[in-house]
Structures
1.
Amino acid sequence: MSVTRIAHLSDLHLLEEDVRRRRGVARLQVEYLSLKRPLNPDGRRARAELALADAAAADPDHLVITGDLTEDGVVGQYDVLRQLLDGCGLEPGRVTLLPGNHDGHGLAWAEALAGPLDRWAATSRPGEGVRLSGVRILPVSTAVEQAFWKSSGRAPDDQLAEVVRTATAAHELVILAQHHPPFRVRMHWIHGLQNVSDVAQLLAANPNVSLLYGHMHVARDVEVAPGEGARAFAPCAVVDGDDPLRIYAVDGNRLVPLERGAAAA
Ligand SMILES: [Fe+2]
Ligand SMILES: [Fe+2]
């Protein structure tokens, strides 16, 4: 029986082609959100294109992209994402998209899934999620309405309840996919997950749940309980990281990170 493999990318921060034509508040907003990264739409697009090509070449059963897909969620940025996904060689049914805090300033996530990203809605909308051999992937949207200078998130109670229901009934691996990390971060009230303790408790109480996240732009494996092995995983950011693709194998009710070479083999 073949092993189910999951690919993971995060934090593309795509820009629309004519972003430099922005003026006024729209220009200030995108400059602020870009931090010190230059407003180079071609460079951002090239990095995302390469990462998606690497993901497709690894031929995973499924690809999860954990948010900050765009710099500030305007239609032109989602159009770039759609073009890249269309051209990457992975059909929409094999890709799950999550919203990050950057994706909520233009279209609301539900509007993006009903519009530019409609072909990825079935695998990305919170709810039933994706069913693969030996694993369920449940997307959880942590996007909240907030001032543009904040980057916090919140995992909705009903979506977490669905993860618990599935984990209790499934007796197999459940992957909770969300943008924000399941631990406290520096200046948490600005940058962190508002209900981080709910997600941490969910992981502690359900050993067959693993979590994929982004937001921090740093690759990391996180243990829920000391000595039991990592159960939460993040890649470095596509927008500014080296080697941003991660691949994991499903092994019973655990998710096991593979070396890149092993994944390619
Ligand atoms: Fe980000
Ligand atoms: Fe983020």
2.
Amino acid sequence: MKTIIVNGIVVTMDSQGHIYDRGYVAFEDGKILETGPMEAGMITEDAHILDARGGIVMPGMVNLHSHLGMVSFRGLGDDCKDRLRVFLLPMEKKAMDAELTYLSTRYAVAEMLLGGVTTVVDMYYFEEEAARAMDEMGIRGIAGETIMEDPTCDSPDPKQALAYARTLMEHYKDHPRIRGCAAPHGTNTCSEETLKAAWTLDREFGAPFTLHTAEMDYEMTYFRDQYHMTPVQFLDSIGVLDSSTLAAHCIHMTDEDIQLFALKGAKAAHCIGANSKAAKGVSPVSAMLAKGIAVGLGTDGPASGNTLDIITQMKLCADFHKNETRDRSAFPAKSIVELATIKGAGALGMDGITGSIEAGKQADLVLLETESASMFPVYDPYSALVYSASPQNVDTVFVDGVCLVKNKKLVKADLAKLRSELAEKMNRTEFGKIKKF
Ligand SMILES: [Zn+2]
């Protein structure tokens, strides 16, 4: 049956930037049929009507970079200088397994859906389990199996990780919402041979080649000392920098790196919350956008950025870039909502199916209520979304036209049950032994 969302401020994010005050969006069988301003007498047919009550209807948001299996690490070693070596790697070794990845990913997807994220790129281990969790929860996602030179919790060497990724990609190649990819951990945590093998595998399946890039100080030093290059120049020199490349972070980009990205059509996942919390610096996103590079937003994992919604990232993006440029008019709210929606979808080559509210696209839709205290008045919906909104304003979410969040609650799952099952599993592992405050 057709569904029509009525009485909403419809922020389409189409190429003309249409916004319809008292607008509607009609969809059926997962696809958007039409959108526009409401007209008298238009709702006469047999349809399910959802009254937006003046709320903001926007395209589902895209989270371009995360590690969903890491919910159990959230808040662990947050202000510790060397958190990675002191907390993350040892705990990963001791406690991470397929079951924990599955339960964690399920919980993480719940959090994202409740915050209006409808598409996610994940990158972790046991990604068959992550893909299964994403599929069950109804989100649109890419499950990236992490490939590393060192032994990991699911693969003793990169060859086996690549074989795991191939099986995953085969399994999901015809799935309507879920795909797999081979995701090398980073520019300097994989050998040249491994990077090339992962890129070749991703090309075979038409999957994004996603990896951490130009993120760490020591990564920059390593490539300078070893090759007299930047990590981006290195990726280009071995032939794996192209329009399939989705580079996470891109903090330490030189002008030449930005030129190379523009020339090769490489994409960037901007993770401002995780980057600023870790005191790593601020990616030169304005310069990248000025060169026409596709940039979207990512949360990074819950151990890095803590929260997994994109609304929080939009606000941080505005705050940091305005402050950095000392320019109040820099990064206007509309340009940030673009990063969260249509540009994020574009960075995945998925802007033909999601990222805007247009006839023919999949019905990935979010309704934010404007009845909460901070959401009144709404002079400009872009401004309300970036500066006033929080994930708690997300009222209703559809993916492929399927209602997954209604009245701020999950429709197909119970958050308390997801949490208790994850907590019970954590208690059976090394996480259960951690002394809390
Ligand atoms: Zn990351």
